[in-house]
């Protein structure tokens, strides 16, 4: 069964250097951007990204990682574009965006695509992300992916439990995901306190299909090893993740991450 290609733009800090987090400022940062299209404008928004925007991003030093739309109608399939970009640093991101916005080519493309006066994107959200130390190298990961479905998961940790949540993922959870056929793609935390730096983990998994995802999660949940790890990591009865959000995504035809 062929995947339907859809649009969520994932703007990641690049295929290279995802694990190079040594010196301050020398590691990549990722930018997750969520666009809500104006009514009836998603196709036009996708066309603009496909034919112009992605190339202009690259021109100004941004790396396109993936483009997707939600897999389900109730999560904005007909109105939402999500993307992840690569920046070499926060300062580089600021400089790239300024150069992009001031580029005459972009101004001409934007004007032509919005000739009726209606912006293609009614709402834009941006979250800058730092990859955590156990996030895989995308150069290795992309060679494994033959997926047509991704799952973007956001965990809000219980008060004071984010370090414990990281430890559980680092030492156990990611390995158990792999055991059950899930592909770990990215693990990161927001850079800004007001966007969840101190209590939020955002990660991306890949699957061959929604059915494969369902079976993998079922097997994971029933795994005695996972049950033991979960119990040992929550001896006080307080769950490490107070809230879990899941969004299934499908890559677009122009997404580098397929």
Low-confidence stretches: 1-24
Q: Can you give the mean pLDDT?
A: 90
Number of helices: 7
Number of E-state strands? 9
Find the CATH topology of the largest domain: Alpha-Beta Plaits
CATH C-level label of the largest domain: Alpha Beta
* Rg, alpha carbons: 19 Å
Calculate the terminal CA-CA distance, rounded to whole Å: 15 Å
Helical residues, percent: 25-40%
CATH level-two architecture of the largest domain = 2-Layer Sandwich
What is the H/E string?
EEHEEHHEHEHEEHHE
In which order are the strands of the major sheet placed? Answer: 2-4-3-9-6-8-7-5
Domain count: 2
Largest beta-sheet characterization: 8 strands, antiparallel, barrel
Tell me the strand percentage band.
25-35%
In short:
This protein has 258 residues and is an alpha+beta fold.
Give an overview in words:
This protein has seven helices and nine strands. With 258 residues, the chain is of the alpha+beta class. The chain folds into two domains: 8-131, 2-Layer Sandwich (Alpha-Beta Plaits); 138-250, Alpha-Beta Plaits. It has an eight-stranded antiparallel beta barrel with strand order 2-4-3-9-6-8-7-5, surrounded by four helices. α5 (162-179) runs antiparallel to α7 (224-233). The protein starts with 7 loop residues before the first strand and ends in a 7-residue tail after the last strand.
